[in-house]
Amino acid sequence: MAVNDRRSRSLIGKRMLPSLTVGLLTRMSLMNTNGNLLKVKDLRTYFETEDGTVKAVDGISFELKQGETLGIVGESGSGKSVANLSLMRLIPDPPGKIVSGSIIFDGCDILKLSSGEVRRIRGKRIAMIFQDPMTSLNPFMRVSKQMMEVTRLHLGHTREEARAHAIKMLEHVGIPDASERVDSYPHEFSGGMRQRVMIAMALSCQPELLIADEPTTALDVTIQAQILELIKTLKAETGASVILITHDLGVVAGITDHILVMYAGKVFEQAPTSELFEQPGNPYTRGLLRSVPDPTSEQGRLYQIPGLPPDLAHLSAGCPFAPRCERAEDICHRDYPPFVQLTTEHYSLCHFANEVYAESPGQEGTT
Amino acid sequence: MNDKPIKQDQDSADERGLSSTPPSAPADPPVIQIGPEFAIAEDVRSIVTGEPVAGTSLWRDAWRRLLKNKIAVFGMIVIIVIALASLVGPTAIKYATGYTYDLIPKESALNKSFPPFRGPDGRFSWTHPMGTDIAGRDILARVLSGGQISLMVALISTLVSLVIGVSYGAVAGYLGGRIDDVMMRIVDVLYSLPYVIIVIVLLALLPAEVWVTWLGLLFKYLGLGVHPMDASTVQLAELFFALGAVSWLTMARIVRGQVMSLKHQEFVLAARATGVSTPKIIFRHIVPNALGPVIVYTTLTIPTVMLSEAFLSFLGLGVRPPRVSWGSLAAEGAQSLAIYPWQLIFPGVTMALMLFSLNFLGDGLRDALDPQMRKG
Fold first, then answer.
1. Burial level of B129, CB count in 10 A (0-12/13-18/19+)?
2. Of A22, A188, B41, B338, which residue is most buried, by most CB within 10 angstroms?
3. What pLDDT score does B204 carry?
């Protein structure tokens, strides 16, 4: 049943049961006054291992407005994926556990819902695309069956309706001969096509939030561009908010409104996309930007941040990035850095945030 | 005999290989090409019809590989022949010669067992191709009827073990943690008890007569009249249950292991992320992916159960007269082995042939379904 539908989208509004509408509208109009679809506050997800507690996500907070795109970047193991699995309560428990925080999605705290209520949100209101399209489709199920499962579950489609809907969605994401290919098995599609199928499946219930966890990492460059373009178009059409997780700054540059830079389970920098690229306020972000190859300039050897990400089970008291940081001083190794506000929407976790911010302008020469 | 399937297989392989040439049929709709990933190889079309080739499932691939395995095909044929013969044989014999598995002819007053192809007068005759037993009953009819029972026991007990084992193992493997611990310790405990003793205790504690009495009372109470099962049938049902109930343990372990490795695959996460409920994830997404080893183990369970049934019947705990099974026939034949060897040889050989074939088929299926072989 459509319990928690958002009012602002006509398509979903039509489906909503009239009896529920009144109560929901009053509640949601209250919730939507600030325009935030998602508000994550101080989210902490820890994993209990034999080696100690791994703080995979350690106190991240962010907000996402309706129709906005948020990019989350970071190295492997920085907690980006765990953060987003936490949003849908998909952390395997044990060993994982969301220790504290709140995830307010459209006015209700996902962490306080029952598992049945969470299931009703998953796939319907928040959908997810995974990194590897080769493994994220069930190899023994026809594509039609997998796609129909979602809409029959959430939209109460009959078999025929669901099938027609699946074909429509496949056509929408640019799969030719959709009505014939819909009965294929996943292994009969190429990687790019499978990712399109995943996107079609994720969007088939018109979710309000789409989480794309490295959707292009497993694909080659030409197809990456197509998939990103597709996500962008579909986002514009449906008005969904998107969280795009990636370790590729080039991917987020053209598509996101805001960027969250994560390192060691923490938010290191948070800024509007253009500002982050033009004027980073954190040495880590600066390092990341420098390690993107720039075809316009002869750089010789590409810059690389020295060292490896820290062991999350054994973090020191100081800044987790200090051992790898170019400008680390004693205080960095000793004290945990503050989360400095640089401008209204620009935050950076660094002892020297203001200095870094000040010396940054134009240094990357964003051409 | 199996040339034909292999040839077909090559044909279809050719079809796929040649698919890089564009379809020549003029009526073909134009292929929409949106981007570079729609390379021509994507567009698999049959040359003959110009239609896109229907989806080949992994099952079809496995079937194709199975057909290449000559011994497995041989096994399959033998199984089908024996199964068909058991199915229609007794009726056909009754029609042809008038003998059934429990028909004792009048002249058996002689109390003589005829050798194969010998009539009462000692001359060649088609009446008893496998001879007769000590009471003058036709052994061919008895072997085929016994086949019915043996196959039925094997199939139904395997089905029981399949249902219990797969559900139990899948639930334990998927839920994991403490539930898994408890469930698998129960399996360990049952494993440590000798299964024959469990079966014997089950069959001895609740003998068929008790069930017949209870069922009779139940039917009377419900006003359904006299219930239709005699002690021999009830005993058979009990045998299905007892053998099934002890043979699910290994199945549960196999399925649990499979599920544990499958549950971390991304498609399971993807299914969870679309809000699919846990039972549906287990039985619609995970179990079908674990079916390869399950099928292999099932085909290897059938002969084991069959052998157990024969063993129990041999001990007199299995099938009761007047019903016969291969085991009870062998037990009967063994009593007079020195004088009338054909009484043991025919049921024995038939059963051995069936067991061999089942094992060959099981091995073939394992090769066909083994994920390691898929790469080859």
1. middle
2. A188
3. 75
